[in-house]
Write a structure and sequence with these properties.
Elements (H helix, E strand, L loop, with lengths): L6 H12 L16 H16 L3 E4 L5 E5 L8 E6 L13 H16 L7 E6 L11 H7 L4 H5 L5 H11 L3 H4 L9 E9 L4 H4 L4 E7 L1 E10 L3 E2 L11 H19 L4 E10 L5 E2 L2 E10 L2 H22 L2 E6 L7 E2 L2 H13 L4 E6 L5 H4 L5 E6 L15 H20 L2
Parallel strand pairs: 3-4, 3-5, 5-15, 6-14
Antiparallel strand pairs: 1-2, 2-4, 6-13, 6-15, 7-11, 7-12, 8-10, 9-11
Helix pairs in contact: 1-3, 3-13, 9-10, 11-13
This protein binds zinc ion.
Zinc ion binds next to loops.
C-alpha cells in the first residue's frame, strides 16, 4: 500500500501553529501554560476534532486527540511531541512532532483502516522544562514526585501560576499515571537539534537511545595571596587548575570518548579580584554518554584528571557528584525496527544516532515500546528563532512516522 501523509494539509497546519506566539523573527514564544501555549493546544485540538478525533485532557495537562479502535480491550499507541517552546524558541521543536502525529492519525483514518489499537496523538506538558522539565510525560509515567513539584527548576511561583492558567491541580499531576499494560508504544518525530544529519546529507535519523547526563562540582583549593609580591613560581593559583582541567578534559573526550560530550559551563574564582591570586576555583562540569559503561568510564577519567592537575599545580581538588543525573535511555528494539523499515519502504537514506538532548521518550521508554525519528536541523541550530528544517525533510519524517505507527499498531 502506498500510504502517505497529506503534505499540503500538514504544511497548512504548521504555518498556522507557527503564528501562535510568533515572535516576528521567525521564532515562537510559547513557554508551558503561557497564554500562547494554551492557545496552541486549543487550536490543534480543534483541528483534530474537525478530523473526527476525540479530544482528551489528562489531570497533568497533557492534551490528546484519540482515534479509538473498535476492538474491545484495545491498547493505546501514543504518537506525539510537545507544543510548548523554550522562551523565544523555534517553530519546529516539538510542534512539528505533534502536527505530524495528527496528520498521521488523519491519514490512517482516511485510509479506511481498522486498527487493533487506539491511536492517541499527544501533546506533553512542559517538555522544555520552563517549569519542571518533562512534567507531563513524567506524570503519565508515574515518576513525578511531590518532592520534585515542591522544588521545580523554574521556581514554585511559576509552576503555580502555570497550573492555575491551565486548570491543573497538584493532586492531578500526581494521579495522572497510566497503566503501562494499556500502552502499545510511543513514537515521536523531532528535529535533530544537532548537525549530524545535515552534515552527512542523510534525511532520516533513527534514534537508538537518549544519552545519560551527570554533573560534578569540582573545586580546586590553592592559596589566595598578593598578585604582585608572590613570585610566579611560588603560587598556589587555583585558576591554573581550572584552566588545565578544562583544556585537558576536552582533549581526553575528543580522543577517547567518541559520542560523548563534556561541558564546563560555570567557573567561579574566589576571592575574584584583579590583585589577588585565586585561592579557590569552582567548576560546574556536565558530561553525557550514550551508555552506562562510558558514563562511568568518563566519570572516573575526569576524577583522575582532577587529581593529576591538582598535583601539577600544588592544588587540592575536591569533587562532588550533583543530584539530578539522568541514566542513559535505550529506545525500544521494535520501535527502532519499525522506523528503520518505514524509511526503507520510502527509499530514504537513514542512519542511527543517539539524542544528546532530553525528550519525553525518556519518561516513556521504561514503560513501553518507545521510538524517535529525527530529521535534519539546518546548521544544528535549535532553541532559537533561526531553527529551521527543510520542508521536504519534515514531510519525509512525517511519512516515516506514519508508516512506523501503522506497523506498531498492526502488530502491537
Ligand atoms: Zn522538543
Amino acid at each position: 500500500m502506498t500510504l502517505l501523509i497529506n503534505a499540503d494539509r500538514l504544511r497548512a497546519d504548521f504555518e498556522a501553529l507557527s503564528q501562535i506566539g510568533a515572535t516576528g523573527d521567525g521564532g515562537v514564544d510559547r513557554p508551558c501554560w503561557s497564554p500562547a501555549h494554551l492557545e496552541a493546544q486549543r487550536w490543534w485540538l480543534g483541528r483534530a476534532a474537525e478530523a473526527g478525533l476525540a479530544p482528551h485532557t489528562d489531570p497533568a495537562g497533557n492534551v490528546s486527540a484519540v482515534w479509538p479502535s473498535a476492538q474491545p480491550g484495545a491498547r493505546t499507541l501514543l504518537v506525539g511531541s510537545h507544543t510548548d517552546s523554550v522562551p523565544r524558541g523555534g517553530r519546529f521543536d516539538g510542534a512539528l512532532g505533534v502536527l505530524a502525529a495528527l496528520e498521521a492519525a488523519r491519514s490512517l483514518r482516511e485510509a479506511g483502516l481498522s486498527l487493533p489499537v487506539h491511536i492517541e496523538v499527544i501533546d506533553f506538558a512542559d517538555e522544555e522544562g520552563t517549569l519542571l522539565g518533562l512534567l507531563g510525560s513524567k506524570a503519565l509515567a508515574g515518576t513525578l514526585t511531590a518532592a520534585a513539584l515542591a522544588a521545580p527548576r523554574g521556581g514554585r511561583p511559576a509552576l503555580e501560576a502555570g497550573m492555575a492558567r491551565a486548570g491543573v491541580a497538584e493532586a492531578g499531576l500526581l494521579a495522572a499515571r497510566r497503566d503501562p499494560a494499556g500502552l502499545a508504544g510511543y513514537l515521536e518525530l523531532h528535529i535533530e537539534q544537532g548537525p549530524t544529519l545535515m552534515r552527512n546529507a542523510i534525511p532520516i535519523g533513527v534514534v537508538q537511545g537518549i544519552v545519560g547526563i551527570r554533573s560534578l562540582r569540582l573545586t580546586y583549593h590553592g592559596q589566595a595571596n598578593h598578585a604582585g609580591t608572590t613570585p610566579m613560581d611560588q603560587r598556589l593559583d587555583a585558576s591554573l587548575g581550572a584552566a588545565a582541567f578544562t583544556l585537558t578534559a576536552r582533549e581526553l573526550v575528543l580522543r577517547d570518548f567518541p559520542g560523548c560530550t563534556l561541558n564546563i559551563g560555570h567557573v567561579r574564582l574566589a576571592p575574584g579580584a584583579f590583585n589577588i591570586i585565586p585561592g579557590t576555583a569552582e567548576l560546574g562540569v556536565e558530561f553525557r554518554a550514550p551508555d552506562l559503561g562510558r558514563l562511568d568510564d568518563l566519570q572516573s577519567v575526569l576524577l583522575g584528571l582532577a587529581d593529576v592537575v591538582g598535583r601539577q599545580f600544588g592544588l587540592t581538588p575536591q569533587a562532588e557528584a550533583l543530584a539530578g543525573d539522568c541514566a542513559p535511555t535505550p529506545l525500544g528494539a521494535r520501535a527502532i525496527a519499525a522506523l528503520t523499515a518505514a524509511a526503507d519502504s520510502l527509499a530514504l537514506r537513514h542512519t542511527t544516532l543517539f539524542s544528546g538532548a532530553g525528550h519525553d521518550a525518556m519518561s516513556l521508554a521504561p514503560l513501553t515500546e518507545a521510538g524517535m525519528v529525527f530529521i535534519p536541523s539546518r546548521a544544528g541550530v535549535s532553541h532559537a528563532p533561526q531553527e529551521f528544517s527543510e520542508w521536504e525533510d519534515c514531510v519525509n519524517g512525517a511519512n516515516v512516522l506514519l508508516r512506523a505507527a501503522l506497523a506498531l499498531a498492526s502488530a502491537p
